[in-house]
C-alpha cells in the first residue's frame, strides 16, 4: 500500500515536471515575443511602441505559431500514444522543424483574419451598438477555437492545409458539447491565471492550455471513429 502511494506521488511529480519543462521550452522559443510584448505594454517612446507592435505582428506567424505547433505536438504524443515523457527537448525541436512552414502559413492566415476583425471592431462604438460588440466577441471566440482545432488537427494528421482549415472550422459546430467543454476549460484556466502570480501563470499557461485543446480534439476524433465503425457494421 505504501509503495503504491509512493509510485502515485512519483508519477504525479514526473508529470508536473514534464509539463513545466515543455512549457519552459515553449517560453524559451517565444522569448522575442515576450520582449516585444513588454515593449508594447511599457513603451518608453511612441517609436518603441510602433516597433513592438510591428514586431509582434511579424513574430506571430514566424515565432509564436511554430513554437505552439511543437508544444501541441508534444502534448498530443503524451495523450494519444501515452509516450514516456523523456527527451522532451529533442521531440520539441523536431516537431518545430517539421511543422514550421505549415505553422507560418497558418499564422499568416489567422493573423490576417484577426487583424481584419480588430480593424472592423475599432470602427464601431461598442456603447452605442452593444449587440454588434457582442457579435465581434463571438467571432473572436470562434476564431480562437478554429485556430486551436487547426493546430490539433495539423499535429495529429497530415491533411492538406486547405482540407485541415475547412475540417477544423466545422469541428466547432459538429461537436458543440466538446467545444463548449473546451471553452469552459480555457475560461477556467484564464480565471486561474488572473488569480495567481503572473510569473507562476507563465510556467503553466502553455502546457495546460495545449493539453485542454488536445484532449478535447482527441475526444472528438475518437467519437467520429466510433460512429464510422458502427456505421460500417
Automatic annotation (TrEMBL):
It comes from the Bacteria. The keyword Transmembrane applies. InterPro entries: DUF624. The keyword Membrane applies. The chain crosses the membrane at residues 20-43, 49-75, 104-121, 127-152, 164-183, 189-218. Keywords: Membrane, Transmembrane, Transmembrane helix. Pfam families: DUF624. This is DUF624 domain-containing protein.
Amino acid at each position: 500500500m505504501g509503495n503504491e502511494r509512493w509510485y502515485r506521488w512519483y508519477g504525479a511529480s514526473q508529470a508536473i515536471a514534464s509539463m513545466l519543462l515543455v512549457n519552459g521550452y515553449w517560453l524559451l522559443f517565444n522569448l522575442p515575443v515576450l520582449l516585444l510584448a513588454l515593449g508594447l505594454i511599457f513603451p518608453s517612446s511612441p517609436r518603441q511602441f510602433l516597433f513592438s507592435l510591428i514586431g509582434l505582428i511579424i513574430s506571430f506567424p514566424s515565432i509564436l505559431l511554430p513554437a505552439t505547433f511543437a508544444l501541441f505536438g508534444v502534448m498530443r504524443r503524451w495523450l494519444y500514444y501515452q509516450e514516456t515523457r523523456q527527451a522532451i527537448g529533442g521531440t520539441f525541436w523536431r516537431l518545430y522543424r517539421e511543422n514550421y512552414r505549415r505553422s507560418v502559413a497558418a499564422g499568416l492566415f489567422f493573423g490576417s483574419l484577426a487583424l481584419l476583425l480588430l480593424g472592423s471592431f475599432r470602427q464601431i462604438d461598442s456603447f452605442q451598438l452593444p449587440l454588434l460588440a457582442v457579435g465581434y466577441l463571438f467571432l473572436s471566440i470562434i476564431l480562437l477555437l478554429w485556430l486551436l482545432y487547426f493546430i490539433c488537427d495539423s499535429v495529429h494528421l497530415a491533411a492538406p492545409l486547405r482540407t485541415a482549415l475547412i475540417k477544423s472550422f466545422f469541428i466547432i459546430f459538429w461537436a458543440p458539447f466538446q467545444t463548449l467543454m473546451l471553452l469552459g476549460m480555457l475560461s477556467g484556466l484564464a480565471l486561474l491565471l488572473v488569480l495567481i502570480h503572473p510569473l507562476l501563470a507563465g510556467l503553466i499557461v502553455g502546457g495546460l492550455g495545449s493539453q485542454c485543446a488536445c484532449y478535447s480534439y482527441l475526444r472528438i476524433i475518437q467519437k467520429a471513429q466510433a460512429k464510422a465503425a458502427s456505421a460500417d457494421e
